[in-house]
Write a sequence for this structure.
């Protein structure tokens, strides 16, 4: 199948050569592959955007998962921001709370849009709906944010993995955070190369992150990993916009992520047999919910 | 390339909590039902790897049953699929397996009713995307992303040409085709990916061709 880009180097080179945004290259590739019109593709992405907006809205009102393990933290963080005493900054915490909101809705079996997965669905919308208030994007720019994220996610999915069972949490929240960083950079007016730097800086700091869900549920630590993924994305985007570059090129960071995932023990890849799932408290929670500890 | 569309990455819209364990599972169930051609009376679902370890927590069980009931990934009824199955007269059973499969998220569905049985093995490769890896013991690779026709037939000369002719008569273009057989002269399987959805009429005509045992389809 003919695609316009197979890796980040080609993606950035093409954007530079044609003087286009990363999001534009992704839209053109989607038109090419699907044979559908630009209008149809933009409409489909806007429907995804609407689902994201509704999920955040629902999460900010407060939800509880069936197990009661997660829910309500997005509200706590919003209340804290409203007190005006936040240390890490309102925009950053706003992104964190909205990432948490989305994942609390996901844990409660609500409707979300996977970005790139459900367990990591908070990061991209969380950052988008926070930077929105600072950058005042048009509706089209908000939709483009998702295409920019998608372009980088496309490269990761085809060259490494976006599955926690195959590559650990680095492949899920790690990928999501890096995708978000690239999209923030584009929305803030950065160059395609700076998008790639933002992506690389984020993913480098997520390498090695294991997938160790307590009781096998997408709740602990997934919700808070989305929070930190959003924070990581914002800081890395700022660094890239400041002109900081990654010494290891983006595609090589993706390659490293893949190989780390291959080397990771299956106990740490979404089997609930290791990491936080295997702590005394993690096992106790599993016992309480299912009446039996997860197999060791 | 495993992922071809941006909507594989930004999407699907789905009921949580896991794209691979919930949305992917629902899709495997749904494709299995489509291949069976109707709602089965019973289904035995063997789970491997991460599916076997975490299926309860991820809602993999309700999603698979929901899929077999014909639900899409964003269907709210996934949450109550067990109750819906009882109403619809579908018996189900889950069998977590110890054996290691090539991919950690593998499910094998054995389903049937008074008129027949079928086995379908699917893997969830991440982000809600799936591949069907085996049907009735035949190894294959089917993404479910394109409409497809599966034809079980006797391994006889001319069978493939007859099927291709029938499709050509209905102006159906073949995008990709694979043929496999267990042993020469015995049962064989054609997997034909096509460019448009197939209606029942074409399926019926295919089933009249000599040496064709069974025809099923996946629409998109």
């Amino acid at each position: 199948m003919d695609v316009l880009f197979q890796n980040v180097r080609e993606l950035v080179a093409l954007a530079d050569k044609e003087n286009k945004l990363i999001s534009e290259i992704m839209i053109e590739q989607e038109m090419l592959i699907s044979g559908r019109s630009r209008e149809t593709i933009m409409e489909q992405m806007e429907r995804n955007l609407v689902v994201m907006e509704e999920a955040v809205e629902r999460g900010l009102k407060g939800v509880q998962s069936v197990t009661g393990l997660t829910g309500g933290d997005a509200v706590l963080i919003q209340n804290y921001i409203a007190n005006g005493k936040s240390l890490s900054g309102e925009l950053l915490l706003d992104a964190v709370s909205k990432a948490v909101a989305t994942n609390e809705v996901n844990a409660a079996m609500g409707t979300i849009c996977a970005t790139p997965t459900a367990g990591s669905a908070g990061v991209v919308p969380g950052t988008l709906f926070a930077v929105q208030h600072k950058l005042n994007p048009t509706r089209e720019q908000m939709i483009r944010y998702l295409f920019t994220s998608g372009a980088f996610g496309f490269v990761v999915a085809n060259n490494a993995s976006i599955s926690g069972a195959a590559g650990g949490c680095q492949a899920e929240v790690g990928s999501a955070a890096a995708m978000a960083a690239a999209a923030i950079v584009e929305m803030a007016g950065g160059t395609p190369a700076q998008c790639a730097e933002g992506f690389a800086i984020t993913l480098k700091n997520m390498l090695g992150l294991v997938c160790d869900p307590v009781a096998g549920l997408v709740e602990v630590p997934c919700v808070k990993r989305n929070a930190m993924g959003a924070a990581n994305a914002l800081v890395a985007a700022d660094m890239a916009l400041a002109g900081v570059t990654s010494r290891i090129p983006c595609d090589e960071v993706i390659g490293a992520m893949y190989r780390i995932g291959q080397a990771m023990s299956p106990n740490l890849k979404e089997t609930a047999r290791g990491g936080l799932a295997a702590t005394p408290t993690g096992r106790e929670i599993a016992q309480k919910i299912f009446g039996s500890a997860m197999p060791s | 390339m495993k992922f071809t569309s941006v909507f594989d990455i930004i999407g699907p819209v789905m009921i949580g909590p896991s794209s691979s364990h919930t949305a992917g599972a629902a899709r495997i169930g749904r494709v299995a039902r489509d291949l069976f051609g109707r709602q089965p009376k019973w289904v035995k679902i063997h789970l491997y790897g991460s599916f076997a370890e975490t299926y309860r927590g991820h809602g993999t069980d309700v999603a698979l049953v929901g899929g077999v009931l014909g639900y899409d990934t964003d269907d709210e009824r996934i949450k109550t699929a067990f109750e819906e199955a009882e109403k619809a007269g579908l018996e189900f059973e889950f069998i977590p397996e110890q054996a290691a499969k090539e991919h950690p998220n593998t499910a094998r569905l054995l389903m049937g009713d008074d008129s027949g049985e079928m086995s379908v093995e699917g893997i969830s490769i991440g982000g809600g995307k799936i591949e069907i890896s085996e049907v009735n013991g035949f190894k294959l690779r089917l993404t479910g992303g394109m409409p497809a026709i599966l034809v079980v037939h006797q391994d006889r000369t001319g069978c493939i040409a007859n099927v291709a002719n029938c499709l050509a008569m209905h102006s159906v273009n073949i995008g990709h085709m694979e043929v496999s057989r267990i042993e020469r002269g015995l049962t064989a399987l054609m997997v034909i990916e096509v460019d448009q959805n197939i209606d029942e009429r074409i399926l019926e005509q295919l089933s009249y061709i000599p040496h064709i045992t069974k025809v099923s389809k996946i629409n998109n």
User: Anything to note?
Assistant: The radius of gyration of chain A is 19 Å. Chain A touches chain B through 64 residues (CB under 8 Å). The mean pLDDT of chain A is 95. The longest strand of chain A covers residues 111-113.
